[in-house]
Amino acid sequence: MTMLYRQPIFPVDSSVLRLIQFALHEDIGTGDISSDCCIPLSARAAARFIVKEQGIICGLPVIPIVFRQLSDDVTVDLLVDEGSICSPGTVVATIEGPAQALLTGERTALNFIQRMSGVATKTRTYVDRIEGTSAQILDTRKTIPGWRLLDKYATVIGGARNHRFGLYDMVMLKDNHIAACGGIREAVDRVISELRSHKAIRIEVEAQSLEDVAEVLQCSGVHRVMFDNFTPDIVAKGVRMVAHQLETEASGNITLSNLREYAQTGVDFISVGAITHSAVALDISMKFILPRAT
Predict the structure, then answer these.
(1) Nearest in space to 157 (alpha carbons), one of 280, 56, 77, 86
(2) Mean pLDDT confidence for 30-53
């Protein structure tokens, strides 16, 4: 079992807590009739969280948050570090407390850590594919609605870097912004005029051709140019044109099979929506620890 090289801080945020509470309410509704009918209130139990396939474990801090919404009398022991690469059979956490609470929170806790571990694992596949190049993998806003913080946290656990979190923390002038303004220069000039008192906000401009790249280079105040749906050879030409005057990013129609070809162009960043929108949940289960027969 090995650790990844990057360890972000888990986002203990009110929106994450609300998401967990919503997920529990969605599942429990008017009550967990299965557990309520067959498990006495006084019954206690212990369980293990077991990884069933190779992958990166992510989301462990969610486990105590989930179960403590159901009972204050729950003890959770996290047995591996967040971001560990775990083999099948690895016990990543144990939990002890009221049996009803454990059964009621089981599915919700698993849904969170399976999804997050799946995102981290898929991300690591992309990061490993470009090892040895100077490019870095970026995530996108193609996340599950309401899951933005957790999805982006999981991509960093997998070795990627975060792109903007939303519409509020970075200017990105895409094709529709440019069309609405009448051109790249017009769009950039309007943004610069409006952001005079907010110079810390970074500006990225999408280019759909090398002619667009040339126009972006003529605009002052831009930090990064995105090569949108360029082939690798055109990306390489764009990188040479930019010549380190701006950061460069490739995006669009990039797959695991052509990813390394893009990375070898010298581009700084490669943004990949698939690491979040197409991630498959990692197989993890929660199993009760049964008392030994006497």
Answers:
(1) 56
(2) 96
